[in-house]
């Protein structure tokens, strides 16, 4: 403000000094215009020049104001349209959240071109069209979303893949995700979506190729993705197990990342597949090699079901494992089954009884009952059948006590009392 006052003061002083000079040195001035000569005093000429400058300045100011008014009008109109577009976006998102798909799509597309965020408008409208089961309209809106912001190809592609997946358009979702993988090979969410699509397609070979990358990006830690991994192993290994293709099973196992091969569930799937393929010798070798490092309950259970080339050696291994974990019900049941294969009925019976008193198991009850029938102990066999049936229904274990000698059937039935639960 002080600078403006000083500037005006200087202009005033300068004008006053100039006026004094003009008046002090006033004389005739001649202007020739159109063949005529006009005589003016110097003061008059200076006044006319000043008036001409003022008139020119006023004209320029009026022209500037006129054009500025037009620009302001355009700005006001654009502001009004942008405000309307933003209001439509807000209302459209509300309608989308509430499930009014028709109204949401209309509001989101009505002023999308004037919106400050047209990408959000088109993505929301595409979601609404998808919920209306209008895939062609959805894809058209997604195309417009990319045109509105070319840098958002990944975001738009992910949204498209999600909607295709939820609509069970698996082939289209697969193609979309492969394109996204080419654009963003390290995008973890794209990789996760691709795994889900392959899982739904039961494309186990492609999923197996994807497992190392899934493991590398720590995507197998969640429960859902862990289920995807398990289904991949079961589906793929089961496929070649049915074909009795043991070479392919061994090749697939070697292709798995070490972190997956070290998982107990993966070990069991591989060993069970070898057993299903009829390669019990390979399954036996694999289980034995695993148990030299760490004992696995499910592998121990499987060890008792396969056909062994040398039963005495298998029994020796099982006894060694039991020595490391005395009274382990799985190891006891394993020895019961191995001795049953050896037709050592009495020893097998003892192991079955001890195992069931440690941990009741419906299948073990059935196996023991069948064994007792072979041994002619029908009363004990019926007792096992009853305990096994009650356990299947009530899920409560009971103490198993077998009669030392076989009694007449009626007497046994008349004196039987249920054992206490534990």
Automatic annotation (TrEMBL):
The chain crosses the membrane at residues 40-63. Its main location: membrane. InterPro entries: Heme_biosyn_assoc_TPR_pro, HemY_N, TPR-like_helical_dom_sf. GO terms for biological process: heme metabolic process; porphyrin-containing compound biosynthetic process. It comes from the Bacteria. Residues 31-132 form the HemY N-terminal domain. Pathway: Porphyrin-containing compound metabolism; protoheme biosynthesis. Keywords: Cell inner membrane, Cell membrane, Membrane, Porphyrin biosynthesis, Transmembrane, Transmembrane helix. It is a multi-pass membrane protein. It is found in: Cell inner membrane. GO terms for cellular component: plasma membrane. NCBIfam families: TPR_hemY_coli (TIGR00540). Involved in a late step of protoheme IX synthesis. This is HemY protein. It comes from Thiothrix eikelboomii.
């Amino acid at each position: 403000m002080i600078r403006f006052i000083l500037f005006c003061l200087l202009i005033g002083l300068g004008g006053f000094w100039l006026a004094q000079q003009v008046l002090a040195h006033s004389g005739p001035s001649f202007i020739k215009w159109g063949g005529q000569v006009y005589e003016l005093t110097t003061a008059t000429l200076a006044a006319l020049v000043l008036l001409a400058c003022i008139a020119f300045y006023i004209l320029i100011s009026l022209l500037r104001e006129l054009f500025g008014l037009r620009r302001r009008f355009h700005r006001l109109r654009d502001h009004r349209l942008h405000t309307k577009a933003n209001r439509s976006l807000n209302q459209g998102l509300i309608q989308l959240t509430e499930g009014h798909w028709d109204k949401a799509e209309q509001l989101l597309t009505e002023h999308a071109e004037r919106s400050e965020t047209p990408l959000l408008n088109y993505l929301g409208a595409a979601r609404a069209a998808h919920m209306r089961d209008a895939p062609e309209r959805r894809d058209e809106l997604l195309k417009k979303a990319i045109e509105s912001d070319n840098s958002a190809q990944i975001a738009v592609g992910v949204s498209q893949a999600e909607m295709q997946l939820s609509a069970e358009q698996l082939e289209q979702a697969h193609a979309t995700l492969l394109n996204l993988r080419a654009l963003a090979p390290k995008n973890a969410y794209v990789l996760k979506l691709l795994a889900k699509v392959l899982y739904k397609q039961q494309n186990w070979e492609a999923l197996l190729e994807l497992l190392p990358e899934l493991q590398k990006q720590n995507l197998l830690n969640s429960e859902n993705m862990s289920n995807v991994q398990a289904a991949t192993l079961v589906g793929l290994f089961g496929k070649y197990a049915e074909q009795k293709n043991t070479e392919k099973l061994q090749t697939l196992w070697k292709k798995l990342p070490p972190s997956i091969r070290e998982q107990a569930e993966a070990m069991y799937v591989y060993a069970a597949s070898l057993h299903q393929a009829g390669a019990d010798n390979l399954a036996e070798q694999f289980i034995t090699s695993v148990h030299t490092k760490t004992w696995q309950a499910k592998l121990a259970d499987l060890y008792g079901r396969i056909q062994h080339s040398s039963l005495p050696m298998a029994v020796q291994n099982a006894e060694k494992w039991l020595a490391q974990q005395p009274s382990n019900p799985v190891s006891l049941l394993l020895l019961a089954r191995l001795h049953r294969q050896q037709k050592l009925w009495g020893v097998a019976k003892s192991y079955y009884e001890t195992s069931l008193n440690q941990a009741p198991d419906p299948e073990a009850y059935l196996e023991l009952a069948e064994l007792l029938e072979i041994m002619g102990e029908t009363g004990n066999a019926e007792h096992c059948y009853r305990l096994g049936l009650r356990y299947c229904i009530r899920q409560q274990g009971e103490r198993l006590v077998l009669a030392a000698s076989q009694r007449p059937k009626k007497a046994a039935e008349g004196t039987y009392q249920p054992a206490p639960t534990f």
